[in-house]
Amino acid sequence: MKAPASSMAMSNWVFVFSIVVCFFASGSLAIENFHQAFPIVEPDPGHTKLRLSREGLEAIERITNPIAAVAVIGPYRSGKSFLLNQLLSLSCYEGFGVGHMRDTKTKGIWVWGTPIELDIDGVKTSVFYLDTEGFESVGKSNVYDDRIFALATVMSSVLVYNLPETIREADIARLSFAVELAEEFYGRVKGQDVAFEPAKLLWLIQRDFLQGKSVQQMVNEALLRVPNNDGNKNIDMVNQIRDSLAIMGDNSTAFSLPQPHLERTKLCDMKDGELDPMYVKKKEQLKQLVSSIIRPKIVQGKTLNGKEFVSFLEQILEALNKGEIPSTGSLVEVFNKGILERCLKLYHERMEKLSLPLVEQSVQEYHERSMEEVMKLFEDQHFGRHHAKKSVEQLQEEVDKVFKNVVMANEYQSSKLCEALYTRCEDKMDQLQVLRLPSMAKFNAGFLQCNQSFEQECVGPAKVNYEVRMMKMLGKSRSLFIKEYNHRLFNWLVAFSLVMVVVGRFIIKFILIEIGAWIMFIFLETYTRMFWSAESLYYNPVWHVIVATWETLVYSPVLDLDRWAIPAGVLVALFILYWRCYGRRKHGSGWILPLYNNHKGGSNRPRSD
């Protein structure tokens, strides 16, 4: 019983695997067959926004030639799909689907998978034909129709506005977005790159009789300003669109096309011979007109291949879906995104050249010069005339963020530098407090050098605060040094006088040194204690003479005795040692200094024998 069960399970897996293989096989076969219509943009479930269809994008991405697109727009049930099939010389059964019911057949935007190859100004160009969902159908919002209209306007090279019978006010109003795009992106200084060239607008009026007027006259009359004596805002808005369309006169043309046959529901089953001969003739003229005005799609100054066209389409769709209502401003933001990045990069590069820290005024001036360069770059390359203000504000906001970081970095580097200088001066003052040989001249020289180096090297916003700290620290150090200076010098001179008494009496045996040392010692200890207090000594002229002599000997720009005291003491000791051991034998007792003469036990004492 188990074997049949396992065999059945195996059969089920084989069946499922076969279905999967067949599914992928059929899918790949469908993708390889590009001689059919594909959706490239579809509505979302809410039928308010648009999304891309991967299937249709693959049909476009494979093209390596420059691309041009012909899009047909108009009300639903106006014969757009049938018209496209006629332009492509396709029947209804092999071309775009044609609906005979009262609901719209085409959803979103569809593309015919096989482009028509044309030689345009010596450039081999692949021309795609696009079918769009008709507007004013039931169950859709006006915002959705605007998105379809705007997307077709932006992505096409020729925009065929298919209108039955006549031109209504609503038909003109629907061009407001297309006109705004043309003014915003194409109304630039001649010779500069533009975001994209607007589509050539082709007014296609399907009407049998024009009452003796040409279709161009009919369009021109429809675009005349409407009197508005009551100041109606809606009429003002439509008149503004009329004015803009008049400005776009060189970018639009008009064409009339009679009805192909009275029995519209049977058109798909009719050959050209069964259709109205005038329609067939005009249809061929329309093909020639489209071929004569079409040009490769130009975006930022260059043509697009398939992959670039899809990338461009993704940008536009992102902008149109941004927010609840599609706006020219959102498109401007998308196209200016790259310009903003380049401007920010330029500003970064300029500010990175700063060698921080700097004084705040220098940083501000450099920021302003860099900002001038950035704004010049933005003015030369930005897209949009009326809605570029938001991009400028965004650029200013991003630049302000970068500048704020630069200011913070300048403050940090300034604090770091001034702190290092302050610490160095503080250490210097501490060293001067404990000199081996106290010297006011050396302290003043160190004090001045420290103060000058701080003033010259400490720069930036932190300098003001550190200057206050520096002055307080230097003032305290100076007061402390002066307070201790006289006392230390007095003690040092007392000790020095005693040392010189010993040296003059027992080592060198030079009586003048000993006498001088005794005089100094007596003056400092005995005389001062008898007649002055220790503090009053420091105001005595004799003490000033002693201090001046001391300062002259201890420190000068040429000789710093405090630094060389130990080496000099070693040299003197070596000299005395040499003289004591060898000098008197060789040169006699009076060689250099008048020494004590001791005749007791000497070699010149007369013998008693």
Automatic annotation (TrEMBL):
Domain of life the protein comes from: Eukaryota
Domain GB1/RHD3-type G stretches: 64-184
Keywords of this entry: GTP-binding, Hydrolase, Membrane, Nucleotide-binding, Signal, Transmembrane, Transmembrane helix
Cleaved signal peptide residues: 1-30
InterPro entries: G_GB1_RHD3_dom, Guanylate-bd/ATL_C, Guanylate-bd_C_sf, Guanylate-bd_N, P-loop_NTPase
Keyword Mitochondrion among UniProt keywords: no
GO molecular function, one term: GTPase activity
Protein name: Guanylate-binding protein 5
Transmembrane segments: 489-508, 515-532, 564-582
A Pfam family assignment: GBP_C
